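Help!! Second protein's tokens look totally different from the first
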Amino acid sequence: MDLFSDYSQEFTNILPYDGEVDYYGIVFNKEQCDYYYDQLLTHVDWQCDQAIIFGKKVTTKRKVAWYGDIPFSYTYSNITKTALLWTEELLALKKIVEERTGETYNSCLLNLYHTGEEGMAWHSDGEKDLKKHGAIASLSFGAVRKFAFKHKENGVKIDIILDNGSLLVMKGTTQENWLHRLPPTKVVHTPRINLTFRTIEIKESV
């Protein structure tokens, strides 16, 4: 049997309404997780993330990387990034995620959280460059972390634990109706690598 052929097929939608968040659970075994964690940590071109907040450029401890089919430009937090071309490991993971989810993706935003003290504030991925109602597949390697959703209108919260080697997919109207975040914690002292496969809309010039 191939090293990367024994992942799970089943998933559960964890949202009660107004969106779809399918959680597949752990889709890679320990050996696979260790392999990809080491490869990504070593071969990805990690850079400190930046954002414009109240007119000032802020640099975060969290590191990011942006890869895709072509050198896409992608703007979030008022900063524009240009995609690097896929690495061998990222292409392999993209293929696996596409087979699991039945979706296709042309880019991936990666995050490296060094400890639990690094997280992500409430937000939704509603940038104009993203495919409307397109799927965003979130793959996790390394430290186990809590991930949270909050309804934009009624404030209902849903928490889930993202395990090492787990896959979660946000799609449909999720981004319109729900915020999500990675809350910081002082009890996690090891890194987590998160890959978010997504689809950038290519604008045709007139």
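Here's the second one for comparison:
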Amino acid sequence: MTKQEFAEWAGRETIILDGATGSNLIKAGLGRGVCTEQWILEHPQVLIDLQRAYADAGSNIVYAPTFAANRMNLTYYGLDENIRQMNHDLVRLSKEAVQGRAYVAGDLTTSGKIIGASGEVTYESLLEMYKEQIIYLVEAGVDLLVAETMISIDETLAVLDAAAEVCDLPVMCSMTLEADGSVFAGGTAWDAVESLQEMGASAVGLNCSVGPDQLESVVASMKRVASVPIMAKPNAGMPTITETGEAIYNMNAEDFAKHMMVLVKAGAGIVGGCCGTTPEYIELLAGNIR
């Protein structure tokens, strides 16, 4: 998909993303302290069934489970020598799941580190990390890229710079935000929109964070400064953490879909669900939109 094709598509209709991956994998047996990407490759049918259900529910785009399949994260698990093959295999699973009924986005995420803080990471090191993963995602045949759950505007700019050096695919960027629109590492949601669209993002928005019931004013504020589509992929409400550490999300599918329509009216043109959502949530959301 070209950037122009993406822009024309987003100008015609509301684009529907998938819902959660991680919280559904945990329900299926993903344990604590293991590499999620490796677990998926060891249990491929779990991912295939989930993403097939999202395509059935109406998702136009599903995220390949390459969320943290970058050198920094895989080195932590001693899997860095497998990075190219893992990205290829994870994209292949998503393609097998959707069978051409939805686009497959190569998924990238934050390093979790702040640029320049105590020498943890530099812009240049992040640029190289993202560039390497994007090369493998492009080789695997993704239709577009998404940088999600980003906590820093500067790090998200590194994704855009890396993508620009490697390919001409559309890049969607979504930050994880507080309910007041503040970015974890500094700045605001509207700062993110202005900076990222200027640097070539094809869409900018938010994911994870809180529930859709708390984000109407944030989405409206982002829309006011946007020249690209605004994304909204929030959680199924705020979780309650049990004594065993399990996150229980408090918003049911019907309420989620209702609140998401408020965000669509506020200006979100690309919508889906994050933690706690399932194909049922996406099916009801798609039904309300279409």
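Reply: Different proteins will give different token patterns, so don't panic. The chain has one domain: 3-289.
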